[in-house]
Amino acid sequence: MGEVSHSAPEGRDLLKRQLGLALRRQKLRALLLVVPLLLFVTATFIYPIGGLLTRSAYAPEFSEGMPRTAAALSEWDRTGLPPESAWEALVLDLQDHNRQGTAGKIAATLNVELPGARSLIIKTARLAPRLTPPYRTSLAAAEDGWKNPVAWAAMKTLANSFTDRFYLAAVDHRIDADGSVVAQPSGRQIYVPLFVRTFAIGGLVTLCCLLLGFPVAYWLSVLPMRYSNLLMIMVLLPFWTSLLVRTTAWIVLLQDRGVINSLLVWTGLIHDEGRLRLIFNSTGTVIAMTHILLPFMILPLYSVMKTVPPTYMRAARSLGANQFTAFVRIYLPQTKAGVAAGCLLVFILSLGYYITPALVGGESGTLISNMIAYHIQKSLNWGLAAALSALLLASVLLLYWAYNRLAQVDGLKLG
Amino acid sequence: MSLPTYAQNWERAWYYAFRAFCILVLLFLVLPILVIIPLSFNAEPYFTFTDGMLRLDPTAFSTRWYLDIFENGMSNPALPAGSWEWLADVWQNGQWIHSAKNSILIATGATILATILGTLAALGLSQPAMPAGRLITALLISPIIVPIIVTSASLVFLLAKVGLANTYFGIILAHALLGAPFVVITVTASMSGFDRSLIRAGQMLGAPSHVIFLKIIMPLILPGVISGALFAFGTSFDEVVAVIFLTDYEQRTIPRQMWAGIREQISPTILAIATILVVLSIALLTVVELLRRRSERLRGVKPS
């Protein structure tokens, strides 16, 4: 008796220690299994996205390429033309570039900030070795462009390695010659209207998907299994079909000489000359994206509706509610999670759409993704592309966070 | 949902209108895909049904666009179709054949990588002892949520820095990243409701852990692994944005060539390719559906 009471606490401690050890070992084993994918995702996803975000606020090309000029301009207060020290720094920097044959890179960097500055830099770099002090006089005499303070102001803006100018450009603002932040004139605002359009088209597509998808999901959830499985194939087939195939199908259908227009002409609803413009505009984008994203609405709705017991509706009916009241008060609240999950999923996916708008969107149906692609591939304004990406990413992640709170992601039915 | 006998007229009307609406929506989903199948047999280079097609005139139909899939890019198009020389030329120089080879190579590589990494991670995530499981799951799934353009743009700079731009290995890495979340989702789903006492029973009977994995866990999660792998394969096979950004003409895949074809001059050959892809996706859908049912049966979930 005495021996038991003596050893009990000791035994409990031992047990606790062993349990803790076993638990830690289990934890470690679970973590070790996840680590390879986690490392892979970090290396190919988190790290490069971090790099992209850095690019949106950090642009050292100018201050590294033209160190003397960047330093000299930091003292200039943007009034009139800069002092002789800055002119001298510019000529010396460009002499270096002329020797190394790298003037083109700096010219391209400045050209992004000040369109047309490319030739100014190239020409100045070519004649820089022949210039003599005082440079202010000799350079101004050789190249008219430097008499304009705007060129110097652009270089001063570039001289800051850490910069908000890409974000300012992404919301249609710019840094003026005197250093103040001003809005672009309304005719030259591009990005804010594009964001608005991206969100508007995303919202419209989400609404269309909900209006078309909700009744179908409801019908499939109340039909007997053998019918609903058959009809489910009609939802899953587009889900599994290549995105490009579906986009091609819509081009074929909606073209001026395509199936739908020909059908309408044939039935006499429209004239041969009055064929409808259904594609290469925002109408085409909305139709094709609704078709492509509809399964993403139906599937989560269906899996939630499947869990709603039909007895509740019957109970409401027998208690005197009519069909409409029973539906609104009893059925609808129970499907809220599915509606929210489906809408968020469709909206998130539509924000990042690139292929379909690029192929069927024409001028008025392109989205923010297409602009990012343009700046990466064509205009090479990577800082602006990075800032636009960052804004898009931020809105998507915010919505993803909301989605995660509303629906368990791994509970999403995929097939 | 059947109509009760006491239903009033308006209820009857509503019931049929509702069904008609649902059927229309389902047709909206399927018809655009099916309509390209007959159009791909059009004898004329048009994208609409010709009068001859509507009359079911056999001369209005042809398989010339299917032949074009093989012959496009041949160095000697005059060779008789079906001969050995023709076959060798097609295999060597056919544009679409080249893309198909690339697509299969890239998708296979990406699938293997994604399946191995994704399955391991899902096994870890579904253990009750996993710390911060929700957060890590959200992180691992995020590549399919983040806009593909953002992922591609950031990979452009990374791959250029490490010298993998315009290489097969680079695009395989990118596609594995996009496919792995699907494997994580399907394998985690097949582990849900997994009876852990089976593992304990195995341990009690003295089985070492690799035997438990191979004989108990693997057979139960295999349907999930295979359907995850099919998802990863399908993702890679269909993906075009990353291909546009990260590869060159040499690594072009089928979707990449379709993209170029649609942008420049859309020809009915694209419809023939699309038809073949539709048939493939029907096959894929069937396999995944069969696997899902098998998995549910294995886990003792009531089949649906």
Task: Please give a structural write-up.
The complex is a heterodimer of chains A (415) and B (304). Chain A has 415 residues and is mainly α. Chain A has a two-stranded antiparallel sheet with strand order 1-2. The longest helix of chain A has 56 residues. In chain B, helix 5 crosses helix 8. Chain B has a domain of 203 residues: MetI-like fold (Orthogonal Bundle). Helix content of chain B is 71%, strand content 0%. The mean pLDDT of chain B is 86. By secondary structure, chain B is mostly helical. At the A-B interface, helix 1, helix 10, helix 11, helix 12 and helix 14 of A face helix 1, helix 5, helix 6, helix 7 and helix 8 of B.
Summarize the model shown:
The complex is a heterodimer of chains A (415) and B (304). Chain A has 415 residues and is an all-alpha fold.
**Shape field of chain A:** extended
Summed over residues and divided by their number, the pLDDT of chain B gives a mean of 86
Low-pLDDT stretches of chain A are: 409-415
Q: Please, how many helices of chain A? A: 20
| Most extensive contact | A-B, 89 and 93 residues
Q: Based on CA inertia axes, which overall geometry of chain B fits?
A: globular
Rg of chain A is: 32 Å
Q: Give the CA-CA distance, first to last residue of chain B.
A: 18 Å
Strand content of chain B: under 5%
Gap between N and C termini of chain A: 63 Å
| Named CATH topology of the largest domain in chain A | MetI-like fold
CATH superfamily of one domain in chain B: MetI-like
The CATH class of the largest domain in chain A is Mainly Alpha
**pLDDT under 50 segments of chain B (min length 5)?**
none
CATH architecture of one domain in chain B: Orthogonal Bundle
Number of domains of chain A: 2
Biggest sheet architecture of chain A? 2 strands, antiparallel
Topology order of chain B in helix (H) and strand (E) letters? HHHHHHHHHHHHH
